[in-house]
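Appendix B, Record 12. Input sequence as logged:
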Amino acid sequence: MRYRILLLLAVLSACANVQAAKICGRVVDKNGSPLVYATVYPVANPIDGTATNDQGLFCLEIETDTATRVAVTYVGYKQQQLWLTANDNEQLTIVLEDQPIALEEMVIEAKRTRMSKRKMLARVLRETYLKLKEDLPHENVRYALVSDVKMDASDAPWGMEQMGAEIIEAPGRAQEGKDSVQFRGLWCKRYCSPEVRARIDSVLKHDSDRNRQKMATGLDKGTLTHRALWSLRMDPAHLLDTSDELRRWKMSAEDDAHCVLTYRRKYNFLGVVKATLTENLIVDAYDYRLQSYTVDLTVKLNLPFAMKIEGVYLEWLNLLSNGGQPAEKFKLKKGTMHARLSNIYAMRNGVLVPVEKNLEAEGEIVGKKDMVLPVKVWATQHVGEVQTSGVELYKNYDKHAEVKRTMVPIY
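Logged structural output:
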C-alpha cells in the first residue's frame, strides 16, 4: 500500500510539473506584411488556439515539456503546420505562401475548344464524371473541421469567428439523390477588437431590447454560415447535366500532368437577376481524378419592389456588413455581389474528400432611401480527421441548434 501511495504521489507531482509556456510570434505574407486574424491553434485541440492582431502578432500557450504541432491558417494562403516548443519563443516569424482562390491566378485562361477537339472534350468530361462517381464516398463519412469566417467591408476586418465542427454525410440520402449533411458545431470563438467588444457590452448592459441584444452577439442561427460554406462543392450530377452543353465548356492544359475544364454561363431572369457563372475543374490528365474545383460568380439584383429582409436572413446580412450598428430592419431594392470559391480535394482512406475550402465575397446591398450596406467576407475551412467506416448518423439531429460562443478580444 505504501508503494502505491508513493507511486500516486510521483504521478501527481509529474503532472503538476507540466507547465504552460507562451509562444509569441508574428504571421506575415511573403512581403512581410502582417496577416490580421490569421488563426494559430494546436492541431490536436483547436479550441485552445488564438488569432493574430492588427500587427500580425499572436501568443499561444503550449506545454513546456513537449513539442506541439500547430496549424497556421489564413484564407487565400496555404495552411502551414509546424512543431513548436518553449524554446521557439524568440523572434518567431511565420511566413505563409499564397494559395490563390481564383483559377485565373493559378493557370493560364483556358482557350475556346476548337470544333475538332469537341469529341476529346466530351470524352474527358465523361471520364471525369465516371472517376468522380468511383472516388466519392459511397458510405457515411465523418469529418472533423475547423472553420474561420472573417467579415467587414474595409481592409481591416473588425472580427472573426472560428468554429470547430463535426460533419456526417450520408451519400445519396437526401432529396433527388443528393448527400444528406449533418453539420454539428462543437465550439465557437469570436475574436474582435476592443472597440467592437465595448459596443457589444454597452448594448448588453444598457439596452433592454432583446432583439438588439441578440443582434449584438448573434452571428446567425446555429451554424448557418459555416454549414453553408461546407455545402458549396462539386456535384457529379451537375457535371453530368452540363456535359451536354459542350459549347459552354472549354479545355486547356495546366501542365503535362493536369488539364483544366472550364464551364461558363450567363443568366438573366427578366432583368431582375443577372448572373455570370464560371466553374473550373483541375483534373489529373492521366486518370481524370479531381484535384480542385473553383467557382467565380457575379450577381446583380434590381428588384421592381422592395423586399423585406427579416429573421435569420437579416442576421446573416448583419454578419456580412461592416460591423457597425446592426440593422433592425431592411428592405432590399438592389445589390451586387462577386464571390470566388475554391475546393481542394485529396484521397483519404481510399475515397475522394474535400480537405480545404476558401471563399472571398464582396459587394453591396441597397435598401429603401438608398440605405447601403457594404459586404465583404473571407472564409476558410480545413478538414482534420476523416472517418470512412462505421459512421452512424446523429439521432435527433437539430441543424438550428445554438452553439455557445466565447468572445475573445485580441487587440
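The chain has seven helices and 18 strands.
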